[in-house]
Specification:
Strand content: 15-25%
Largest sheet: 9 strands, mixed
Bound molecules: ligand BES, zinc ion
Helix content: 25-40%
Length: 468
């Protein structure tokens, strides 16, 4: 689907506006009446123009709670879904120029998320809206950065939805290279040999039973005028498939484990959107890409592995692998000179128990960045909620035989103790962690898209990076 900005007046199949715009757009009384009738019981109306307007159809979003951006965004998402279903192919998204740029952005965000479909594996692809033209007060610059965000959300959803067969570590690297092409992002790949040289015993233990070898993908953006050695780091869990290892998952729990690279997909796409949107600070992204699989060479419960920072880790469970690969990615970020480290991961089932699919749990000691990311989330309509993270949580990860265990005590505070494990590897570098395991996936169609990957946090993290 191509989204563009109207530079001159356009004539397309649909016009889409708010019921407030209806008053000023000079539609025929019959049309106004029909719109009013439909809006009595629904949040939007679609009506054929019966030759009474330059457009064939008129779609109207009810001017409900214009002060609530989340509501507006969802409204436009729902409308996009309905229009696409009805067979529309081109939309003229009209936002009265008197309205703010913010409203136009929000409408665009909702609309572009609502039209998303994952149909590349269908013999006959689903119907798509092919063209969206936006008429609004949005400046060309703002449009460009908003477009980068919505395209990145769609791309993030794609990467997560694609089956693990077609999204192993190397596929992911190729996809990342493609996304970074034409941007100022430098792509570096540490292969298994380079990881071994760097002493990444934790990452390599997780990846060693898969024929698809582990990689640490590093993406760098150096902002003009910034000290080359100073940058902020984001690490994303890239477990391309999580069988659970020898502590194998029951088949129901394994079913969706292609989404276990969601942290990496989110960080990658947020980063690309931020760079396209004019990132001003140096940022590096560390994505450990592995497959947690099983063979005769698999790592075992009770094994003790040595991470790249020298910490020995007792394997309490081979299914707690995300924290192991992130630990080594964090060490690489730290030794490269990161000023702060943020981790994003589908890390625990316990996140679902804590906050469900509604809020992303956030925790850490980097108060300044946590404040920024919470604000970015609020403005993006993505819900995030801070959890406590204290030394007591780290004590839950004690091991009798090694420096630390990769499992806590009976799952107590499971989401936070996983965060405490990661915090250990920050060694005092300002740290924050977001567990996207529930929110990155929706089991049913929702206002902003179909069942499947949601692309949660792409928007918030892009805004966060732009606010650095
Ligand atoms: N990838 C899972 C977490 C997960 C679970 C993501 C459900 C999405 C949906 C992770 O690697 C895992 O299995 N974690 C274990 C840790 C436990 C063994 C300490 C968990 O949460 O059960
Ligand atoms: Zn696991
Ligand atoms: Zn996992």
């Amino acid at each position: 689907m191509k989204i563009s900005r109207a530079t001159k007046s356009v004539k397309t199949e649909y016009i889409l506006c708010s019921d407030e715009d209806v008053k000023t757009l000079g539609f025929a009384p019959e049309i106004k009446k029909e719109i009013k009738r439909q809006l009595k019981t629904a949040s939007f109306a679609v009506c054929p123009s019966l030759g009474l307007s330059a457009y064939q159809h008129i779609a109207v979003v009810k001017k409900v709670q214009w002060s609530n951006n989340n509501h507006i965004r969802r409204c436009y998402g729902k409308l996009a879904f309905a229009l696409q279903k009805s067979g529309a192919t081109s939309i003229h998204l009209f936002i009265d120029a008197k309205r703010s740029e913010d409203l136009a952005s929000i409408a665009l965000q909702g609309f572009a998320q609502g039209v998303y479909r994952f149909d590349r594996y269908l013999k006959k692809s689903k119907h798509h809206i092919e063209k969206v033209v936006l008429s609004s007060s949005l400046s060309a610059k703002r449009f460009k950065s908003e477009l980068a965000v919505v395209e990145s959300i769609q791309s993030c959803r794609d990467l997560i939805n694609i089956p693990a067969e077609d999204m192993g570590p190397d596929h992911f690297v190729q996809a990342a290279k493609k996304l970074c092409k034409g941007t100022a992002i430098q792509v570096k790949v540490m292969d298994a040999v380079a990881c071994k040289r760097a002493g990444m015993g934790a990452l390599l233990a997780v990846g060693r039973a898969s024929p698809r070898k582990p990689r640490l993908l590093i993406l760098e953006f150096h902002a003009a005028g910034n000290n080359k050695k100073k940058f902020h780091a984001l690490c994303g869990k890239g477990v391309c498939f999580d069988t659970g290892g020898l502590g194998i998952k029951p088949s129901k729990s394994m079913e969706l484990m292609r989404k276990d690279m969601g942290g990496a997909a989110t960080v990658l796409n947020a980063f690309v959107a931020a760079v396209r949107g004019g990132l001003k600070k140096s940022v590096r992204v560390y994505l450990p890409l592995v497959e947690n699989n099983i063979d005769g060479n698999a790592f075992r419960p009770g094994d003790i592995v040595t991470a790249a920072d020298g910490t020995t880790i007792e394997i309490g469970h081979t299914d707690a692998e995300g924290r192991l690969v992130l630990a080594d990615a964090m060490t690489q970020a730290r030794s490269d000179g990161a000023r702060s480290i943020a981790t994003v991961a589908t890390l625990t089932g316990a996140a679902m128990v804590a906050l469900g699919r509604i809020h992303v749990p956030l925790m850490g000691d980097d108060d300044a960045h946590m404040k920024k990311v919470l604000l970015s989330a609020q403005n993006s309509g993505e819900k995030m909620w801070q959890q406590p993270l204290e030394h007591d949580h780290l004590l839950l990860m004690r091991s009798a035989n090694a420096d630390i265990s990769n499992t806590g005590s009976n799952g107590e505070a499971g989401c936070i103790s996983a965060g405490a494990f990661l915090q250990h590897f920050a060694h005092g570098t300002p740290f924050m962690h977001m567990d996207i395991s529930p929110c990155s996936w929706s089991n049913k169609n929702h206002d902003l898209g179909p069942q499947g990957a949601t692309g949660v946090l792409v928007h918030s993290l892009c805004s966060f990076m732009l606010s650095l």
